[in-house]
């Protein structure tokens, strides 16, 4: 196993200070290791995540070569050639476990931001004290965006949140964590080859959840109640003026509708599995509130906004991958983690790789078991052919 930094490197160095996992501690599990602490319904801090992963590596004596940066991976006649800063490796097969969050995805209109406005991504934001004094525009309202909006607003800075497509979820539903419902109802385990629109499922933004000790919901209603201004998707920057989409109401209504359909699915599962008695009665949540009018533009030269945080998602970094397995949008072409255009090449940790839970810590085990089974068959076949 090759790691460019330390074990759990991204958790150590590429997260903001206050971040906690979105998944409750009872759901933090790896093969042979589960959370054993005193707060199963809590949410791990970043130091706790680092400790959890490091302990797993140590207990299993994993052969991790740390501080080994891969600069090139290319196909050879009998397998693959990996070039690192510490030499070359030849092998018959490779598993790409770099995940999907190596680089911040920032739209091109970032280049049009006027001078004097400081820009940050989730990788270089650490805490509100790192921001200039004054108002903050946060672009993106998925998990990262709503968490940062909440934290920065609580620091006393005025916050404007630009909202596009998003997934609204309550933290708690019928007395249980919403991710408990996702797990027991079977939603997390839905397979990639059983989905009607796999590509859309893989593009869905992360749900508006945060892991706080009090397990509070952090949807747009909660944010607007604290004084955060909600505006539409940032669509353009012309000169000093930021322009926002007029489709905010439609985005909010669609997110509310999808949440309600999911909650209905949970309720139906509880009835058919006779688990209704274990949970509180079904709940219905207030629709996302909208102002009678939301502003459609903002003068970035007025001094109202001093910094922008781009919470617009992440993307993988495949600059070192010298194998022609990328599509025209820069996405890895694979079938459930099996890179069909390059025999012996696999991927793990990508969104909805084999199941909806693929990018979560507890989702790794089932995906890994499937891929290892295919890998063993591939190695056996190639050995016989050789």
Task: Provide the fold topology.
Layout: H1 9-13, E1 29-30, E2 33-34, H2 46-59, E3 70-76, E4 79-84, E5 87-91, E6 94-96, E7 103-104, E8 118-121, E9 135-139, H3 143-154, E10 159-162, E11 172-173, E12 176-177, H4 178-184, H5 198-203, H6 220-225, E13 229-231, E14 234-238, E15 241-244, H7 248-272, E16 297-299, E17 305-310, E18 314-315, E19 345-347, H8 364-385
Parallel strand pairs: 6-19, 8-17, 9-10, 9-17, 10-13
Antiparallel strand pairs: 1-2, 3-4, 4-5, 7-18, 11-12, 14-15, 15-16
Name a few traits of the molecule.
alpha/beta; 18% strand; three-stranded antiparallel β-sheet; 8 helices; FAD/NAD(P)-binding domain
Give an overview of the whole structure.
There is one protein chain. With 386 residues, the protein is of the alpha/beta class. It folds into 2 domains: 9-102 and 315-385, FAD/NAD(P)-binding domain (3-Layer(bba) Sandwich); 104-314, FAD/NAD(P)-binding domain (3-Layer(bba) Sandwich), CATH 3.50.50. 25% of the residues lie in helices and 18% in strands. It has helices at residues 9-13, 46-59, 143-154, 178-184, 198-203, 220-225, 248-272, 364-385, and strands spanning 29-30, 33-34, 70-76, 79-84, 87-91, 94-96, 103-104, 118-121, 135-139, 159-162, 172-173, 176-177, 229-231, 234-238, 241-244, 297-299, 305-310, 314-315, 345-347. The strands form 7 sheets. It has a 5-stranded parallel β-sheet. Strands 3-4-5 form a 3-stranded antiparallel β-sheet, with no helix packed on it. Strand 11 and strand 12 form a beta hairpin. The longest helix is centred in the last third of the chain and has 25 residues, at 248-272. It is globular, with a radius of gyration of 22 Å. The model has no long low-confidence stretch (mean pLDDT 95).
């Amino acid at each position: 196993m090759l790691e460019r930094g330390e074990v759990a490197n991204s958790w150590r160095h590429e997260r903001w200070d206050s971040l906690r996992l979105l998944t409750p501690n009872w759901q933090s599990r790896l093969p042979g290791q589960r959370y054993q602490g005193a707060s199963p319904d809590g949410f791990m801090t970043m130091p706790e995540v680092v400790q959890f992963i490091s302990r797993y590596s140590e207990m299993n004596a994993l052969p991790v070569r740390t501080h080994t940066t891969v600069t090139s991976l290319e196909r050879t006649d009998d397998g693959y050639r990996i070039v690192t800063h510490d030499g070359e490796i030849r092998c018959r097969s490779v598993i790409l476990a770099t995940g999907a969050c190596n680089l911040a995805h920032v739209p091109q209109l970032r280049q049009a931001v006027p001078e004097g406005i400081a820009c940050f991504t989730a990788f270089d934001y650490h805490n509100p004290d790192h921001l200039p004094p004054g108002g903050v525009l946060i672009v993106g309202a998925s998990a990262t965006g709503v968490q940062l909006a909440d934290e920065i607003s609580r620091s006393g800075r005025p916050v404007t949140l630009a909202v596009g497509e998003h997934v609204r979820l309550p933290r708690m539903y019928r007395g249980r964590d919403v991710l408990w419902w996702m797990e027991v109802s079977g939603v997390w385990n839905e397979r990639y080859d059983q989905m009607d629109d796999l590509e859309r499922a893989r593009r869905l933004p992360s749900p508006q959840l945060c892991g706080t000790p009090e397990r509070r919901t952090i949807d747009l209603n909660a944010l607007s109640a604290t004084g955060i201004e909600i505006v539409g998707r940032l669509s353009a920057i012309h000169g000093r003026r930021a322009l926002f989409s007029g489709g905010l109401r439609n985005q909010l209504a669609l997110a509310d509708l999808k949440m309600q359909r999911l909650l209905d699915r949970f309720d139906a599962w509880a009835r058919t599995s006779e688990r209704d008695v274990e949970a509180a009665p079904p709940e219905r949540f207030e629709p996302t509130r909208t102002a009678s009018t939301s502003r459609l533009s903002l003068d970035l030269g007025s001094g109202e906004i001093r910094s922008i945080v781009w919470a617009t998602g992440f993307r993988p970094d495949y600059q070192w991958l010298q194998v022609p397995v990328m599509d025209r949008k820069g996405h890895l072409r694979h079938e459930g983690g099996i890179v069909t255009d390059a025999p012996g090449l696999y991927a793990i940790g990508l969104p909805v790789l084999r199941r909806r839970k693929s990018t979560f810590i507890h989702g790794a085990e089932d995906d890994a078991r499937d891929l290892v089974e295919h890998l063993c068959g591939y190695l056996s076949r190639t050995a016989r052919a050789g």
